[in-house]
Amino acid sequence: MEASPATTTSQPVNFTIAGPTAPIALRLYRPAASTTSLPVVIYFHGGGFIGGCLDDADRPARFIAEHCPALVLAVGYALAPARPFPAAPEDAHAAALWLAAHAAGLGGDARRLAVAGDDAGGNLAAALTLIARDRNGPAIVAQVLVGPMLDPSMTRLGDGAKLNSDLSAATCATCYSQYLPQSRQRLHPYASPLASVRQAGLPPALIVTAECDVLHNEAEKYAAALIAAGVPTQVVRFAKVTHAALAVHQPALDEIAHFLRRRLWEAPPPRHPLNL
Questions:
Q1: pLDDT at residue 270 in the model
Q2: Domain assignment of residue 274, yes or no
Q3: Domain-located, residue 276
Q4: Are the C-beta atoms of residues 47 and 117 closer than 8 Å to each other?
Q5: DSSP characters over 36-74
Q6: Domain that holds residue 93
């Protein structure tokens, strides 16, 4: 029997690296057959900043690894309330720096580095692009945000009843209150990418949303902000799909793989400024 797309990658490898305040758990996926230097993708799982684990990233990480194809590094970042903001985005940046430094030894090409994530992981992927731009590295060439939580002010949430959403405003409020215990943190761009007024210079984006999700409005507003800043941005909303189903929705996975193939394989890798 033919193997399904989600199971054709080689066995992933679990390991840890030193983080800013505690070790970071990582899981590396690679396609079953690869003979060339591969692009690299960092994936952040969902869980509302307070839950989730590497296992939650398994389906999208495997699919991207096989169908991009790419080396995919899933990141077990810090969770609130034990380790609130800014621990998670700092872990994200540390993992990105580690991958950029070690990609060649893993068979990857750090010049073709993308970030992706769903739910809270979508927030971290977006925040990482801001951090990497502000701190001059590592260079990120594409970002994929899947049903991201981008607005801790919760002023752009949709009507859960009208949307038949599986995610409620009350759940979002609980998550944000633990992740951002100080109210002023809710305006920090690394916590609230939608609050940022500096989207210029960010990498091209794919933003994937679900019709039955209170978050789709804020995600699409972030897409509009990126477009206004001159960032090449694609937005895809999937009808009759819920927030929880989006990250494993097959048409969404196909769209993500197609976007990453175009950005990581078809586009020429950027030259390092020192090599110009």
A1: 58
A2: no
A3: no
A4: no
A5: SPEEEEEEE--STTTS--GGGGHHHHHHHHHHTT-EEEE
A6: 5-269
pLDDT of residue 197: 87
Q: State the amino acid at position 141 in one-letter form.
A: V
The ranges of the chain with pLDDT < 70 are: 1-9, 34-35, 268-276
Domain for residue 275, yes or no? Answer: no
**pLDDT the model gives residue 36:** 75
Please write the tens of the pLDDT for every residue from 70-94.
Answer: 999 999 999 999 999 999 999 999 9
**CB contact set of 59 (below 8 Å; sequence gap of 6+):** 6, 247, 248, 253
Helices (H) and strands (E) in the chain, counts: 8, 8
Q: Give the chain's domain count.
A: 1
| Domain annotation covers residue 161 | yes
| pLDDT recorded at residue 191 | 97
Contacts (Cβ under 8 Å, ≥6 apart) of 234: 205, 206, 207, 259
Q: What is the CATH number of the domain that holds 26?
A: 3.40.50.1820
> Residue 273 has what pLDDT?
42
d(CA 232, CA 210): 21
Does residue 38 contact residue 109 with C-beta atoms inside 8 Å? yes
